[in-house]
Amino acid sequence: MRGGRGVTDGVAALVARMELLLDQVAGDGDPARFFLGTYLRTTRAVGAALTAGRFEDPDWVAEWDVDFAGFYLDALEIHRATPHAVAAPWRRAFGADPGLPPEAHVLLGMNAHINYDLPQSLIAVIPPEDFAAPSLMDRRRRDHERIDDVLAARVAEEDLALQRAGGRRTWLEHLLAPVNRRASRLFLRESRRKVWANTAALHEARLAGAGAYALRLADLEAASAARVGDLLRPGPVLVRLAVHGFGVTLA
Question: What Pfam families has UniProt attached to this entry (predicted)?
Answer without folding.
Answer: DUF5995
